[in-house]
Design goal:
The complex is a heterodimer. Chain A is of the alpha/beta class. Helix content of chain A is about 45%, strand content about 15%. Chain A folds into two domains: about 220 residues, Periplasmic binding protein-like II (D-Maltodextrin-Binding Protein, domain 2); about 200 residues, Periplasmic binding protein-like II (D-Maltodextrin-Binding Protein, domain 2), CATH 3.40.190. Chain A is globular. In chain B, helix 4 crosses helix 8, helix 10 packs antiparallel against helix 13 and helix 12 runs antiparallel to helix 13. The radius of gyration of chain B is 26 Å and the shape is globular. The two termini of chain B are about 40 Å apart. The interface between A and B is large, with 44 and 32 residues.
């Protein structure tokens, strides 16, 4: 349970956050072509560190089961690099995102850190983090070395600010025992809408409400976003100037969810986490949940469960995902040695991210994702197979503020307080006002 | 004008002259107050004034430009077409509902408990500890605890009760839960204050009442309640302010659901200021909330003063 909570807390940070995307954004040309100023960070290309001894502060929010995996990697890095001493500090993500800007403003910021992809643009615009163009150029990183959507999500105003460490997509978790009790083949989870609804009806006939739909951000809004993209929709336009989630695909997506309650496939009033708790307790069969759930379910020794890519409910494949990305923080005084050492560290961890994958993540780096070692992790690689179907929010500062309205719309509709179309339209009207405010605040 | 000043000057000199032997004494009270005032000025007064300044700007402490917008942030709170209007007033009304529901209970229930715990019976100390115990827990602990217990589909409460209610996801149930949990959690504090007040009431008054033939009820009305008045003023004002500042319970137990209906003013202000980094707007909201609370507190003080008269 603890693990689950902290992993959720891990993502919970920017409440409205959720990672999402723009279909259109994938089509952008690679960020490497156009490089604007490197600013403070325009240091020489760093793959090796030869300077005097330096100490680096590395902050992150890995408070859950992932923390020890990162700690182990840091220790190994320190052993292999006698001149660099990295010390890791962990905070709750919510605190972390308030603490780091304040620390940077007072000149006490860490050297290296992790940010969720949807926080990168905001922190770049607010001058908290530094461009990393030179690192990606020095290492000759291309979009294909990662995956275009996740790679492009780290670019703000044509400048790269973040290097992806991992992606953590939504997956389709199922309880095999409950499926068998409901008269389903536990080895054949549904893969499309027809099979899905048939399975729900079949379980209902045996008195099982087999797919609890949660009205909360974790993971209801992530399920909604996945469905919206599957139906060909977008949350916002590319410029993040207009909310599009109340259009047809959004309404279809949310109606699909509310129909679960209407048709008795899900109980009413599912509370936070009750969906996954019910799956673990043998009351619920299906759950769309984050990859971080893998290690939680593994703790239940008697639980018979499996995980698959999300079923394709709409017209195309799509899945929500978050992504942890490396960033470097602005300092009062520039220190080339620390900047270089930081880049060596980022690159090294990225190269060793298979260890990180074992903590329940999909490595962002393609060579690691395609390695035999990653394929040997059955659950991670099942969810990781969705890599090319993932979407992220448009990298615009303050986008998470607007996402908060999506979360509210879903809550109102799934709890039966508003019809889906009305809930989404109300949310979109608010989101448009917030986007307008943000455009003014951050200068378009 | 000048003459006037001169007169005052003279008067001042005279006073000073007269007070000469006690000059050090005149300063003493201020010296005693000084340490507290220094802390108060640094951590309350200065930030409050600074906050007022912030509320007149589009303020993000990390952005280079902090444009002065005059009263725009305040105007937006009264303009029904602004981005913040609906959310802000919904959150203010949530705070209002919570305060109106919880304050009477938090005044009455602890008083009953204090009256019981003031009698002598075996195990009294134990029960005093029992009623106070929840108060020592942090809001995170009681929040997570009750979220589990009140879960509409899996929680213990619904499993024990004959019917089942959506305790955390629908109205009015969510308010019942939030108020109930808060009363359970904080009644110990008010009960202890009451208890201290009860013990300050001279025994003779009760004896006198009994000699005059007053019953239990008369004792309570004419001795206990008047005796508690000074304590009561503190308890009323303090409870109102604490209820109006409610944050953690909603944040953890209902997450503001359904929709944003149980999102309190403080929750919304925190979101706007600390998560959306619109600190000017958040500061304006805080000031409006402060003004409301000042008015209510002033009203309560007056009420008690009139009673005293």
């Amino acid at each position: 349970m603890n693990l689950q909570f902290s992993r959720r807390g891990l993502l919970a940070l920017g409440a409205g956050a959720g990672g999402a995307v723009l279909l259109g954004a994938c089509g952008d040309s690679g960020p490497n072509e156009k490089v604007t100023g490197g600013g403070q960070n325009a240091a020489p290309a760093p793959t090796e560190y030869t300077g005097p001894n330096v100490a680096l502060a590395f902050w992150n929010g890995f408070t859950g089961g992932d923390g020890p995996f990162m700690k182990k990697l840091v220790d190994q890095f320190n052993t292999e690099h006698p001149t660099i001493k990295v010390s890791m500090n962990t905070y709750q993500w919510a605190d972390y995102y308030q603490k780091t800007p304040a620390a940077v403003a007072t000149g006490n910021g860490p050297d290296v850190g992790i940010m969720h992809v949807d926080h990168v643009a905001t922190n770049a615009a607010r001058g908290v983090i530094l461009p990393l163009e030179d690192l990606s150029k020095a290492l000759n990183f291309k979009a294909e070395d990662f995956s275009p959507p996740v790679w492009n999500a780290g670019v703000y105003n044509n400048t790269r600010y973040a290097i992806p460490l991992d992606v953590h997509p939504l997956g389709f978790f199922y309880n095999k025992t409950v499926m068998a009790k409901g008269g389903l083949d536990p080895e054949k989870p549904p893969t499309n809408n027809e099979e899905y609804l048939a399975a729900l009806e079949q379980m209902k006939s045996k008195g099982i409400q087999g797919d609890w739909v949660t009205p909360f951000e974790f993971t209801g809004s992530m399920q909604f976003q996945s469905l919206l993209w599957q139906f060909g929709g977008q949350l916002f336009d590319d410029q993040a100037s207009k909310a599009l989630f109340a259009e047809d695909p959004g309404v279809q997506a949310l109606t699909w969810m509310t129909d679960h309650v209407k048709n008795g496939w899900s109980p009413k009033n599912v509370a936070q986490d009750a969906d996954i708790v019910a799956l673990r307790n043998g009351k619920n069969a299906f759950n769309w949940n984050g990859i971080w759930t893998i290690n939680t379910l593994k703790e239940d020794k008697n639980l018979e469960w499996g995980v698959a890519p999300l079923p394709q409910i709409g017209t195309q494949k799509a899945a929500w995902a978050g992504s942890h990305q490396f960033v470097q923080f602005k300092q009062k005084a520039k220190d080339d040695n620390k900047l270089t050492a930081g880049k060596v560290f980022i690159n090294w961890i990225s190269q060793h991210s298979i260890e990180w994958a074992k903590g329940g993540q999909v490595p962002a780096r393609a060579e690691i994702r395609n390695s035999a070692e990653f394929k040997a992790l059955p659950e991670q690689s099942a969810i990781g197979s969705q890599i090319d179907d993932l979407h992220f929010l448009p990298p615009k500062p303050g986008i998470a503020d607007a996402m908060a309205t999506v979360v509210t719309s879903i809550n109102e509709a799934v709890l039966g307080r508003k019809e889906p179309a009305k809930a989404l339209a109300d949310g979109a009207a608010k989101a448009n006002q917030i986007l307008e405010q943000n455009a003014k605040k951050y200068g378009g | 004008m000048a003459a006037d000043l001169a007169v005052r000057e003279q008067a001042g000199t005279k006073q000073r002259a007269a007070g000469r032997p006690r000059r050090t004494g005149a300063l003493t009270p201020y010296l005693y107050v000084l340490p507290y005032f220094a802390v108060f000025a640094t951590f309350v007064l200065a930030p409050a004034v600074y906050g007022l300044w912030i509320s007149l700007h589009d303020w993000d402490y990390l952005l280079p430009g902090k444009p002065f917008v005059g009263l725009d942030n305040y105007q937006a709170l009264f303009d029904s077409s602004s981005a913040v209007f609906d959310f802000f007033w919904e959150s203010m009304s949530a705070t209002g509902i919570f305060t109106v529901l919880s304050v009477p209970l938090l005044l009455a229930v602890p008083l009953l408990i204090a009256l019981m715990l003031n009698r002598s019976f075996p195990g009294r100390t134990f029960f005093r500890a029992v009623y106070f115990a929840p108060y020592v827990l942090g809001v995170a602990v009681i929040g997570v605890l009750w979220r589990f217990l009140l879960d509409p589909n899996l929680g213990l409460v619904n499993a024990i009760l004959p019917g089942s209610a959506p305790w955390t996801t629908a109205l009015p149930w969510a308010w019942i839960s939030l108020v109930g949990v808060t009363v359970w959690w904080t009644l110990g504090f008010n009960a202890v204050i009451y208890l201290a007040g009860l013990q300050d009431i001279p025994r003779e008054l009760y004896e006198a009442a009994r000699i005059d033939g007053g019953g239990k009820w008369a004792e309570f009305r004419h001795v206990t309640l008047p005796g508690l008045r000074p304590v009561l003023l503190f308890v009323v004002v303090n409870t109102i302010l604490l209820s109006a500042n409610m944050f953690g319970q909603s944040y953890l137990i209902t997450q503001g659901a359904p929709g944003t209906e149980t999102r309190t003013a403080i929750m919304y202000i925190a979101q706007v200021g600390l998560r959306d980094y619109k600190m000017g707007s958040a500061a304006a909201m805080s000031y409006l909330l402060t003004v409301c609370l000042l008015i209510i507190s002033a009203f309560v003080f007056r009420l008690f003063r009139e009673k005293d008269a």
